[in-house]
Amino acid sequence: LKQVFNKDKTFRPKRKFEPGTQRFELHKRAQASLNSGVDLRAAVQLPSGEDQNDWVAVHVVDFFNRINLIYGTICEFCTERTCPVMSGGPKYEYRWQDDLKYKKPTALPAPQYMNLLMDWIEVQINNEDIFPTSVGKCKEE
């Protein structure tokens, strides 16, 4: 269990929303909806009067946190020896490209691919230009 919660490995702590902020309130509303047995379509529907970008950001961060926890529970079983390829079944192989170290799509063992993917997602979520933490700072493309 200690390995699952080792931040230097694959587990990353949850990204938190500051209490008292609009995003914190949206997060609480999203959690209440998801834990109440409500229809998922209704649970993710934009609440009246709320900003769509804030609502989507809350769900993206929650999704990342949940995937991170799930991956943390299985990572000890998926090693470079047992999972030498990142695949989606026998017909699909995922290759990593980041234009930094991996300039061309590169086949990697599943754990290495997942670590790179989770690191990349975390960088995106922590980028204030993409996911501003203050209301009203969303960058329009």
From TrEMBL:
Q: Could you tell me which Pfam families the record lists for this protein?
A: Mob1_phocein
UniProt keyword terms in alphabetical order: Kinase, Metal-binding, Transferase, Zinc
Q: Which SMART domains match?
A: Mob1_phocein (SM01388)
Residues in a coiled coil are none
Q: Which domain of life is it from?
A: Eukaryota
Task: Give GO MF terms, alphabetically.
Answer: kinase activity
Listed binding positions for Zn(2+) are: 78, 83
What Gene3D superfamilies does UniProt report for this protein, alphabetically?
MOB kinase activator (1.20.140.30)
Signal peptide residues are none
Q: Could you tell me which PANTHER family the record lists for this protein?
A: MPS ONE BINDER KINASE ACTIVATOR-LIKE MOB (PTHR22599)
Name recorded for this polypeptide: MOB3B kinase
